[in-house]
Amino acid sequence: MAEERLLEIDNVTKLFGGLAALKEVSFTVSPGEIKAIIGPNGAGKTTLFDVLTGILRPTSGTVLLKGQGTVGLRPDQITAMGMIRTFQTIKLFEGMTVLENAMVGCHSRTGSGFLATGLRLPASRREEARIHEEAMGVLKDVGLERRALEVGTNLPYGQQRMLELARALASRPEILLLDEPAAGLNQYETGELSALLSRFRERGITILIVEHDMGLVMDISDEVVVLDYGEVIARGAPEVVQNDPKVIEAYLGIEAD
Amino acid sequence: MEYWEFHVGRADRRQRALLVGSAVFVGLVIAATLISKGSTGFQWIVSGITVGSIYALIAMGFSVIYSSTRVINFAQGEFSMLGGMLMYSLSTRGGLPPWLGFIFSVLIVTAIGAALERLTIHPMRDQSVITIIIITIGIAIALRAVAKWIWGTDPVKIASFSGDSPIRFLGAAVVPQSFWVFGFAIVVVILVFLFFNRTLLGKGMRAAATNSDAASLVGVSSSTSSLIAWTIAAAVGAAAGIVIAPINFAGYNFGIMLGLKGFTAAVLGGLGSAPGAVVGGLVLGVLETITAGVFPSGYKDAVAFLILILVLLIRPQGLLGRAEDVKV
Amino acid sequence: MSDPMKAGKTALGGGKEYRTLLIFAVAVFIVPAWATFIPGDVLHMDIVNIMVFAGIYSCVVIGLNLLVGYAGQISLGHAAFFGVGAYTTAILCTRFSWFPTWLGVLAGVLLAGAIGWLVGVPVLRLKGHYLAMATLGLGEIAFILFTQLKWLTGGTIGVPQGLNVSVAEIPSLSVFGFRFDTDIKFFFLAWGIVVLLMLLNINIIKSRVGRGLRALHSSEVAADAMGVDTARYKTRVFVLSAMFAGLGGALFAHFQRYINPESFVFSVSILFITMVVVGGMGNLWGGIVGVIVLTFLPSVIQALPQWIPGIPESLTNFSNYSLVLYGILLILFMMFMPQGIAAGLSRGLAFTQKRGRRLRDRFEARKYEGH
Lengths: 257, 328, 371
Ligand SMILES: Nc1ncnc2c1ncn2[C@@H]1O[C@H](COP(=O)(O)OP(=O)(O)OP(=O)(O)O)[C@@H](O)[C@H]1O
Ligand SMILES: [Mg+2]
Hints:
The complex is a heterotrimer.
Chain A: E1 7-16, E2 19-29, E3 34-38, H1 45-52, E4 60-65, E5 68-69, H2 75-80, E6 83-85, H3 98-104, H4 114-118, H5 122-142, H6 157-169, E7 175-179, H7 187-202, E8 206-210, H8 214-220, E9 223-228, E10 231-236, H9 238-242, H10 245-256
Parallel strand pairs in A: 3-8, 3-9, 6-7, 7-8
Antiparallel strand pairs in A: 1-2, 1-4, 4-5, 9-10
Helix pairs in contact in A: 3-5, 3-6, 5-6
Chain B: H1 12-37, H2 39-69, H3 76-93, H4 98-121, H5 129-151, E1 167-169, E2 172-174, H6 176-198, H7 200-210, H8 212-218, H9 222-248, H10 254-269, H11 274-294, H12 300-314
Antiparallel strand pairs in B: 1-2
Chain C: H1 4-13, H2 15-29, H3 31-35, H4 40-43, H5 47-70, H6 78-95, H7 101-123, H8 128-148, H9 150-153, E1 173-175, E2 178-180, H10 183-205, H11 208-218, H12 220-225, H13 230-256, H14 266-279, H15 286-307, H16 318-336, H17 340-370
Antiparallel strand pairs in C: 1-2
The complex binds adenosine-5'-triphosphate and magnesium ion.
């Protein structure tokens, strides 16, 4: 069965000086699936996302998004190809309203520049109206539409995470990379997040999620990849991985520290 | 703080090539000067080494603060300016014996440096880079203006430490003060190097710049670290200003040039590296004097800025520095 | 609570900002009306003349605020672009007496923009302190060139005296045969341009581009990841600010009628930054507020003894301590009022409005109780 591949990660290695944050990591993501990446602290999960989104350049290896190589592309080019991320440490834009934060997410699909916006050309005004409408749309999706005019960084923590999600969603991604979206959420909020992610999947958005909350991982993911010291040590269905002795050792080994 | 450093990540081989290339370039320039100009050329190079030691000294001030707080102090050159001017007031005009004038001048500037750190930098330590930059610029121009108020606009001359009769050396004339500058630079560089690499406090301060948790394990908070760094930098800067004043004169507006040249030397050698500061200072000094000899002297300062900008663009970690990866 | 849907829509049109701009324009344009009728010995300053300089500086500082306040990229060398604009038109219009002055201004703007682009593409890869030092170095190089390229710039003497040309001063600006050769005429020209630049500024800030700039200021990584081409944005905003500075410089040359390198030294770059900081970094009106405050400051201080008897004359020699003042202002504003005067003003305005509304509500309530 020749599987269709949305994202192919092939032999990616990232060295920081002497430290190998990623060692020959390879796996693929198929359209429509939810894949989870788990692993102890410092395993290289965030580094992998940084490499995938073009923030870091891998020391070696290739990444193919929809069959096209992304290594060497700028982050904004990769975003425009349909892959976008959220951040483990929330990075909302300071001083901008909830709505404006979401509007920035529309950047990759719009194009008015200095001249068009400066002179308020009709095309840019139309585009501006469209951005506004779509941003309100994604805010509604995550339940933040009533807070649209508040400053984003003033929201409670859980809602800031939702706003990061909405901002990423505004780019209409094909694949969404979520870096610990449930970190700091209470049980109720985690439940809502889980429902939200399922809804995204129904809409056809593929999701690659880094998460420590095993409940959530078990709940939503089709497959789990386990990273430890930058290496893939296991992969497979959630229940299988959970009982893999190597995985247990990796986690216990860390906990014993 | 993000993207804190610079985009680096080129192959090691290219960096080495660049390093060797620039060494060869400097060597060629020196050789060409010697061959085409003979003893005049040698004179230029000797003066260049003196000037370079001056820059190396000032670069040390930048390095100390940068190593421990990752701040570039735009007022660093002003500390040297103040040192020279105070020396003038205390010794040349006030009649204090030079060694006493030296000590008092350095103490006063050191106190000013420490006070400025506590009053302006410390309260703002968590603010953005741009805030800190603007504050240190504010300090720089305020100090400069105060100096203009006190001492007026005319540059002043300070007596050399040990006479003015030049010493002949392979056909070049060297004023004795040059040896003071050179010796002083070497002593300061060694002391700073030992401090940051051999003492617990120094190592802790370096750690405090990048990882305050690790530093507090050693018992250095980033707050104390910053205060100590500013104190040392002010003292080094002031002392440098005094030692070079007999060669360079001293004037209220000399700080900015000294600061820029010192910074260029620091960046050229690798910001935060003590040996790098010496290499950077000497290379800059020699290239600058040679340029001043060959081209109209008005362009002398442009050389330094050109070097600064080129180094920042091509090799921001300096000739001897190590590449750091982007920190997200 | 206002409806976000609607509120967003008006923000999109920048409705409130346009109204403020209109009020501002009216307030500025009536300045000559009252200023010329007050006898000179009451104010002890030539308001219209000072306002012309304020208008010229506003061009520069509005652009610089876009760069520093909004995009978060510092430049300590903007006096260089101010100088490029000034020298370009000054040299063209004095060397070639037939050269149309408006074309000289245009050439100045374009050359400043072109140099901004050449310099900006490489230099803006630097961040923070490194960018600050590099722009400072570029400013110094420009100053050295202004002084050293004597055949072109007239050296320290400047244009036109330092050049071997027949004209005694830089010609006044004329557009379609209309000569802006008095303070009043130039006042309307300069502030007309400032209003247009503000319009452009508002439109940019209240749009996709403005959001991109603010995003890049807040977090370059996040902006990159959200699809903002940060490198291109930085270059563009740098070029735009260079062109605004070039425009200011060109106007400066045609108003002052002679120029020399002194007007483009490092401390002028610092003055521009101080204006941005004092007015309000990242505030739409910050640039203009900062310019007006700092341009009037010297004259106000000079006039103090005439207004209030008993103030020692020695205090009034502003050039003695202007730099100390700028330095201290920079430090104090960054520490205690990082949003600048403009933010304080708008907060004060909002406060009085709220007060007014509350008073009215109470009044209405009282009326209701009375029934
Ligand atoms: N810019 C950098 N420079 C040097 N080392 C880095 C850098 N970024 C990450 N590292 C190191 O790489 C390793 C992997 O870090 P990474 O943040 O990817 O881990 P993670 O799996 O996301 O951990 P966590 O669960 O804590 O988020 C760590 O040892 C980290 O210290
Ligand atoms: Mg992580």
